Amino acid sequence: VQLVESGGALVQPGGSLRLSCAFSGFTFSSYAMNWYRQAPGKERELVASISSGGSSTNYADSVKGRFTISRDNAKNTVYLQMNSLKPEDTAVYSCNARRSQTSYWGQGTQVTVSS
């Protein structure tokens, strides 16, 4: 089982990034997918979730209206489109696959929002 995130970068405030998380080794379409983030000195925060079929999404209040989670089950990939980025969005972003008691994690990708 492997989850690999990509797309993290240094971006100016107000900019955009799209994170990707590619999966292999399990039936991707049967798992709900989540994006988490953790900033230095802070607890890990659930940012966005999407159901296994992609019909249901949820967002943290801090990112509603700015971030969009989506998935392509044919490509075994989940995305996080991040717009209007703020310095407080700076964190390591990790994807998570969850089904019942089973959970898999990626290694994380760094997003830094700074001028």
Report on this model:
This protein is mostly beta strands. It is built from no helices and 11 strands. It has strands at residues 2-6, 10-11, 17-24, 32-38, 45-50, 57-59, 67-72, 77-82, 91-99, 102-105, 109-113. Strands 2, 4, 5, 6, 9, 10 and 11 form a 7-stranded mixed beta sheet that branches. The protein has a 4-stranded antiparallel beta sheet with strand order 1-3-8-7, with no helix packed on it. A hairpin with a 4-residue loop joins strand 7 and strand 8. The radius of gyration is 13 Å and the shape is globular.
Task: Please describe the topology of this protein.
Blueprint: E1 2-6, E2 10-11, E3 17-24, E4 32-38, E5 45-50, E6 57-59, E7 67-72, E8 77-82, E9 91-99, E10 102-105, E11 109-113
Parallel strand pairs: 2-11
Antiparallel strand pairs: 1-3, 3-8, 4-5, 4-9, 5-6, 7-8, 9-10, 9-11
What key phrases describe this protein's structure?
globular; 115 residues; mainly beta
Short structural summary:
With 115 residues, the chain is mainly β.
Are there runs of 5+ residues with pLDDT below 50, and where? none
- Number of alpha- plus pi-helical segments: 0
Overall geometry: globular
What is the tally of beta strands?
11
Q: Classify the beta-strand content into a percent band.
A: over 45%
* SSE class: mainly beta
Q: Separation of termini?
A: 37 Å
Mean pLDDT: 95
Q: Write down the Rg.
A: 13 Å
Order of helices and strands: EEEEEEEEEEE
Main pleated sheet: 7 strands, mixed
Helix content: under 10%
